[in-house]
Design a protein that fits this description.
about 130 residues; mainly alpha; 2 helices; about 60% helix; about 0% strand
Length: about 130
């Protein structure tokens, strides 16, 4: 019996992290390219040559990040499809929350009492205590 190389949850999480990193790099490089294009439009001729060189380098990096992102996405979808067709149940992590009794506002802030006589801002009648 062969084992799917992405069979462990940790391995699939690592691939998802790689995908997220590749997508983030692609976004940053794309933004960087836009900035360099704006600089090139306003730069004198001497600086344009250097900027054009940097832009070509950044463009190649962006293409690599985009290709890696597409490849990882395809691999992950194929892995899911293989697991579905093999009847394998997805790895599910049961996230259980444990309530810490020492924290009074763990899930939501406490609501103010309706008629707090000590804080005139919270009093229903809005009046003074005097």
């Amino acid at each position: 019996m062969s084992i799917d190389p992405e069979s462990t949850l940790e391995q699939r999480i690592a691939r998802l992290e790689e995908l997220a990193l590749a997508q983030a790099q692609g976004f940053v490089l794309s933004h960087h390219l836009q900035q360099m294009e704006q600089l090139a439009a306003a730069a004198p001729d001497a600086e344009r040559t250097e900027l054009a060189e940097k832009m070509r380098f950044t463009e190649r990096q962006w293409e690599r990040a985009k290709t890696l992102s597409q490849q990882l996405t395809q691999e992950l979808f194929q892995s899911v499809e293989r697991r579905k067709s093999a009847g394998t149940k997805p790895n599910v992590v049961d996230l259980q929350t444990r309530r810490d009794p020492t924290l009074s506002t763990e899930h939501a802030p406490r609501q103010a009492r309706r008629n707090n006589t000590h804080n005139p801002l919270l009093r229903i009648d809005g009046g003074d205590e005097s």
